[in-house]
Here is the input.
Amino acid sequence: MITKDPRLKRAGVSGYNKPKRTPKHSKKSHVVVAKIGDEIRTIRFGEQGASTAGKPKAGESERMKAKRKSFKARHAKNIARGKMSAAYWADKVKW
Here is the structure.
């Protein structure tokens, strides 16, 4: 019998690499249990209550486009680190 990793239950996510909102967390807005090979890490990311640009939408304002571009430029090095970085998940989920 395969037992489920206790980190998944503790984080309250359905599986590895599946981010979930955490509205009750005091500081971070999302959590994910990231897994690459044998390495597993619980990552909390995103500022609670921040109004992020979200995914690009038709007719999006120039201000939101600039906001998204600035985030991606500012965090490019950390996003490039991959699934084991909070910046990667913030970019994927929130921006």
In short: Residues 55 and 95 are 6 Å apart (CA to CA).
